[in-house]
Amino acid sequence: MPASREGTAVPNVTFKVLQNGQLTNVSSDEIFKGRRVCLFALPGAYTPTCSTGHVPRFVELAPELHKHGVDEIVCLSVNDPFVMAAWQREQNAGELTFLADAAGTFTSGMGMLVDKSEAGLGKRSWRYSMLVNDGRIEKMFVEPDKPGDPFEVSDADTTLTFLDPSRHFGSVTMFARHGCPFCARAHKLLEDRGIPHERIYLGEGITMSSVRAATGAAKVPQVFIGGNLIGGADALQEFIDKLPAEKV
Question: How far apart are alpha carbons 81 and 85 in whole angstroms?
């Protein structure tokens, strides 16, 4: 597993960025100097874990990361700038900055360039994320050296929990129905505590039969937090009342 470089400066390189159809040079200083940046690096654009888990969760939590002092969120991969620009559009990731490290110069300088030839990818980045404060690495989350493509610590939730340790639970999902006052109440409870959550509405590929199968209940809302079923609005109220007074 590549080593952490916490406390050191990020590599000083020049990136090629596609802007308005033209390739533009952007230096490391322009990205990192005088700012707090969250960068996450991944093996490749359009690859399964990167497309279905890594990028989407950073998109979802971007507003929360900004609230906690992150000026910019950067997704970096050893791909060309045209591929990265197309992937960013496909991921609806306008809140993020996609950086192409085409020659692997930045990744090599980070000590994170690895051979993924067995997976048909060639030289690529090890999966990791980091917080960079004024050009120096404040914190790194480097995936463990395991077979396959480990994705355990470089996710957006881990970064956000580092920035706000009181945020001690994971993803939040609510089964709901449009026009349901109890669902509206549960949504407001979560919103008032600043808890990011996803709402899955009946009729959008989900039926009450699915809700019953997942929760054992035949009514909505049904709220899951960190993979655990909390229940309806009253149960959610009880759960939130037990949380610390500060924003989670």
Answer: 6
Q: How many CA atoms are closer than 13 Å to the CA of 195, on its beta-carbon side? A: 29
CATH architecture of 14-163: 3-Layer(aba) Sandwich (3.40)
At 192, list the tokens: 């008032």
Catalytic residue among 38, 50, 75, 183: 50
Q: What is the pLDDT of residues 70-81, one digit of tens each?
A: 999 999 999 999
Asked if 138 and 10 touch (Cβ cutoff 8 Å), the reply is no
The beta-strand segments (E) located in 91-208 are: 97-100, 113-115, 123-125, 128-133, 136-142, 172-176, 198-201
The pTM of this model reads 0.74
Sign of the Cα pseudo-torsion (243, 59, 124, 19, in order): negative
The yes-or-no verdict on residue 205 having pLDDT over 90 is no
Catalytic residue list contains 50: yes
User: What are 37-64's pLDDT values in tens digits?
Assistant: 999 999 999 999 999 999 999 999 999 9
Per CATH, the number for 172-241 is 3.40.30.10
Domain definitions of the chain by residue range = 14-163, 172-241
